[in-house]
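Risk register update: the risk of archive-format incompatibility is retired. Evidence:
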Amino acid sequence: MTQNELMKQWTESNKSAMDAIKELGEINTNAMSRLTQRQQEMVNLYMEEGTKQLEVLDEVKGVQDIVAAQSRLFTELNEKLMANARQTMDDLVEVKDKLSTWTEKGMENANAAFSQTAENK
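Archived output:
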């Protein structure tokens, strides 16, 4: 193998590695953006719930009204939190799938590079 061939192979290998790192960075950035969005949604839910509870306390006339309103508000909040948790799990499964695909692609590239090196010797 000549020096030019080695340099070409080295350059291609470096480019492939940089492309893989860039792709991994994009996967991580997207994942963190989605998780941050889900966390912000959770904070908003709790803020809305606190506001609703204050409004209810202003409107109720007795203890039974407070208990009924709190029960209703808790049920609503629980449903919203569960929906957020499901969305978060869906996001995480999608990230896992992307990382698996990225890993498989990396292994294929490594095997191809190894095979090419073995052939050139």
